[in-house]
Amino acid sequence: xxxxxxxxxxxxxxxxxxxxxxxxxxxxxxxxxxxxxxxxxxxxxxxxxxxxxxxxxxxxxxxxxxxxxxxxxxxxxxxxxxxxxxxxxxxxxxxxxxxxxxxxxxxxxxxxxxxxxxxxxxxxxxxxxxxxxxxxxxxxxxxxxx
Length: 146
Fold this sequence. Notes:
The structure is a single chain. This protein has helices at residues 13-23, 50-56, 88-97; strands at residues 2-10, 27-34, 39-45, 60-66, 78-85, 102-104, 111-115, 121-126. By secondary structure, it is an alpha+beta fold. The chain is globular, with a radius of gyration of 16 Å. 18% of the residues are buried.
């Protein structure tokens, strides 16, 4: 398993970039605009981690800016932890066998979400290419929120 990033939602992208980059010294390493989803993702890395981030997309801080205003309460501004895993299906099966709810099953063979005992969302991402569709995951519905 490899630690990838921590995601936080931000309400003012410019103010957040000023804080994280200009004041704290993190560097923007990449940005993704999603017109359909109406959001912008900005990935930041500490100067010590910049080369590694460029090469591995980790370790990073992901700023998520939703274009439509939203009030963040109850910790919703903190998004999730993300880990790259060797076999997403095997890990999800192990988690499920041990009583963990798979909130967003890996239907696409690439991404799943689970929650820690304290309700922290954890994103699991398949290392390399997505695995082919596999039951029971391919037809499993989402459960709760993540």
